[in-house]
């Protein structure tokens, strides 16, 4: 039986769908730049790196935000900012591939 909470969950997903898309694009681009770097002889410093796990972490964080934050543009922009953190891996990988950054030394 469907109740009012089910509709809140569905509307939360619909309201924040662009935030999920931003996270997904960031994780996919991070994966592609990681593959390019690995094919050029670089080594992944995170031995348990998985794009699936990365997306699940961002998706779970976005889901929690979509269920708890009020429906206002300010809060949506904050959640969009957090989801854009998935692009940090892309920036790091691109700088390493271009030789502008040596990467993390561990």
Walk me through what this model shows.
The chain has 106 residues and is an all-alpha fold. It has one domain. Helices cover 71% and strands 0% of the residues. It is built from five helices and no strands. Helix 2 (17-39) runs parallel beside helix 4. It is elongated, with a radius of gyration of 17 Å. The chain starts with a helix and ends in an 8-residue tail after the last helix.
What does the average pLDDT come to? 82
The ordered H/E elements are HHHHH
Q: Structurally, how many domains make up the residues? A: 1
Unreliable residue runs? none
Into which percent range does the helicity of residues fall?
Answer: over 70%
Assembly state: single chain
The biggest beta sheet, please?
Answer: none
Structural class: mainly alpha
Rg, nearest Å: 17 Å
The gross shape turns out to be elongated
Q: DSSP strand (E) fraction?
A: under 5%
Q: How many helical stretches?
A: 5
Distance between the first and last residues' Cα: 53 Å
Set out the fold topology:
Blueprint: H1 4-15, H2 17-39, H3 51-68, H4 73-83, H5 88-98
Could you list some keywords that capture this structure?
mainly alpha, 71% helix, 106 residues, 0% strand, elongated
Give a short synopsis of this structure:
By secondary structure, the protein is mostly helical.
